[in-house]
Amino acid sequence: MSKVRGILKQIGSFLSRLRFERQLVRRIQRRTVTQEHLTDADSLVFSQTVQESIESRKPFISIVPLNTVPDDVLQRLERAISRTLDIETEITPPLDLAFAFDSSRNQYNSTVILTRLLEILPDGAFKILGVTNVDLFIPILTFVFGEAQLNGAAAVVSMYRMENELYGLPRDERNLQDRLTKELFHELGHTFGLLHCDDYDCVMHASTYAEEIDLKSDSFCASCYEWVSSILADK
């Protein structure tokens, strides 16, 4: 009987440690725990679990809401990325954009935003995408739908200039989401090294006005998709 109790005690201890490690992995991935939160007895397990979690996790795309972006908008973008690129995504806490505001233009400098996104790129993230509803600009243009680091890691896109109300038209949530999704893939494509595409139906075709976004699809053409797929295959 004593042997049975000893075995049961060992099994219980093992299961307890297994539950602890699983909880750590979930909390690490959600960025809700650091080593300072643990006792000395747990520090070694924490370090090992962190390393194993980072090494075993597939590359993912980090989506950062800039200022306030509705959850349902972000979730639709997550599904679109997963469906098109078959890659994991992670939505982070929102980032306040006060640092990028230009009072002389009453707009937000997208290049400054890209710099900040690169500074907060999470461990293991393949790309980082900022999504916002404020008016973006670069110094040489009146406005931009978005901006990306060519063949880099960061991109930002805004729905501000995509909203029908800005042009005196009734609000259309579906149309807005479609435009946002297309421009998100457009900017994401730039981070893969893609330039503007001559195919009018390709999502990488350039759009100067919101109406031009409506004319193209939300998909890469065969050539652009092959390029992106070849890069993802190496990850």
Give a short synopsis of this structure.
It contains seven helices and eight strands.
Q: What characteristics describe this protein?
A:
2 domains, 235 residues, 8 strands, five-stranded mixed sheet, alpha/beta, Collagenase (Catalytic Domain), globular, three-stranded mixed sheet
Description:
The chain is built from 7 helices and 8 strands; from the N terminus they run H-H-E-H-E-E-E-H-E-E-E-E-H-H-H. The longest helix has 28 residues, at 2-29. 46% of the residues lie in helices and 14% in strands. It has a 5-stranded mixed β-sheet, with helices on both faces. The protein has a 3-stranded mixed β-sheet with strand order 3-4-6. Helix 1 (2-29) packs across helix 2 and helix 3 packs across helix 5. It has 2 domains: 2-55; 58-233, Collagenase (Catalytic Domain) (3-Layer(aba) Sandwich), CATH 3.40.390.10. The protein has 235 residues and is α/β, with parallel strands linked by helices.
Query: Average pLDDT across residues?
Result: 84
Write out the strand line-up for the largest beta sheet, numbering strands in chain order.
2-1-5-8-7
What is the number of E strands? 8
- The poorly predicted ranges are 12-16, 18-39
Write the SSE topology.
Blueprint: H1 2-29, H2 40-56, E1 60-66, H3 71-85, E2 88-91, E3 101-102, E4 107-109, H4 110-119, E5 125-132, E6 136-137, E7 146-148, E8 154-158, H5 173-191, H6 210-215, H7 222-233
Parallel strand pairs: 1-2, 1-5, 4-6, 5-8
Antiparallel strand pairs: 3-4, 7-8
Helix pairs in contact: 1-2, 3-5
